[in-house]
Amino acid sequence: MPAPLDRTTENPAQLPDLVVRGKRVVTPEGERTAAIHVRGGTITAITSYEDTPAGSPVHDAGESVVMPGLVDTHVHINEPGRTEWEGFSTATRAAAAGGVTTLIEMPLNSIPATTTAAAFREKLAAGAGKIWVDVGFWCGVVPGNLGELRSLWEAGVWGFKCFLVPSGVEEFAHVGEVDLRAALPNLAALGAPLLVHAELPGPIAEAAKKIVNADARRYATWLASRPKEAENEAIALLVKLCREFGAQMHVVHLSSAEAIPQLQEAKAAGLPVSVESCPHYLVFAAEDIKDGATEFKCAPPIRERENREQLWEALEEGVIDFVVTDHSPCLPTMKLPEEGDFLRAWGGVASLELRLPAVWTEARRRGYAVARICEWLCKGPARFAGLEKQKGAIAAGRDADFVIWNPDAKYLVKAEQLQQRHKVTPYAGREMTGVVETTFLRGRKIYDRGEFSAAPIGHVLRRGDA
Ligand SMILES: [Zn+2]
């Protein structure tokens, strides 16, 4: 018999209303053969594979992996206001099809941006009845909204996001050190994390002078326009402010590997700093991106192969805590597919449905086991968002959210089959390994080999409700 059984919340008088079992169940103790007992949407026990009480329906995953539902803490849904780019229904269906059962939505690029309590109410109203997975919300710190932070926090947002460079949309202005110095004592007092788009304008302005005559169709031009220094210097500022104010700081979408040593040092010193990176920085390399291929444009940019290898080392060492998508779609025309102009095209990579195969294909090639990517895709982001009591692990007391997937099956990304509103993605036509078969949300099957449940059953996740 493997490992001690977990029956801490099971009431022997009540039968499970679902048993999910398999040969490869990923529990906090590692991968094992097990049966998961579920009642009322919650995991009540992890038992031996044979322990299936008569009368309880059984879903047998066989040789496929049973992992906690994925948690993606970096998703742009854009509704209300830019619903033509992406919306609650299409994004959360993409999530379900990709094995993602929980996502936290970013406060831009919807209109209004989620920077006031009134805007948050509009956001909640826009999503009502449309969400296929559980959804929580980040709100924004922008110049002038200090007075909103407490009411947003009390309304149940999970934390705050800010930009240190122009965000690309006028409703979400960026902040500078002066604004941060005003906001951070408030955030520290609330205990709210600040998620930061860490690039500074100075190095980008310097870089712009050097590329005035460069060919905007070349990927190298885009790469040169967003130098590593912009990230490195922004992260140095954040670490300094973190030390000074003690607020929890989170670096979103780390791309520059040159910033890793200072993050490592800050973490070693016990500062409350956390770091995410994205699949596209871990999969692609600048050297391979063709001229005009603006579907690869995002900021900070996908960098050189050597930089990518250093990001993998940082993931291995735990300097990068987890991997989330930064799913950020737009209208296909905004990618300027005809001109292929990297400087004028909208930046953002859409990949909400593809995170599991994208990360697994690379991780497997590098010798990692399934249990390790569970930390990066499920447990790490759940812990960061403050959802660890509910999400991110297969353990008694947690929500019965599962992704069942085949880690050996190959998969050719057919863009037209993706659930996201528009089918533009740099993963189109790429062969990857790892196929999502079935997704359960709180004990209910929401996706099964191309088919969805009859109606969306996602919940809004508010801090303080659990
Ligand atoms: Zn983003």
Features:
binds zinc ion, 466 residues, 9-stranded mixed β-sheet, alpha/beta, globular
Short summary:
By secondary structure, this protein is of the alpha/beta class.
The global form is globular
Helix percent reads: 25-40%
The SSE string, one letter per element, is EEEEEEHEHEEHEHEHHHEHEHHEHHEEEE
Q: Could you tell me the radius of gyration in angstroms?
A: 22 Å
The proportion of residues in beta strands is 15-25%
Which ligands, by name, code or SMILES, are bound? zinc ion
Separation of the first and last Cα atoms: 34 Å
Q: Helix/strand-derived class?
A: alpha/beta
**What composes the largest sheet?**
9 strands, mixed
Q: Kindly state the mean pLDDT as a whole number? A: 96
How many beta strands in the DSSP annotation? 18
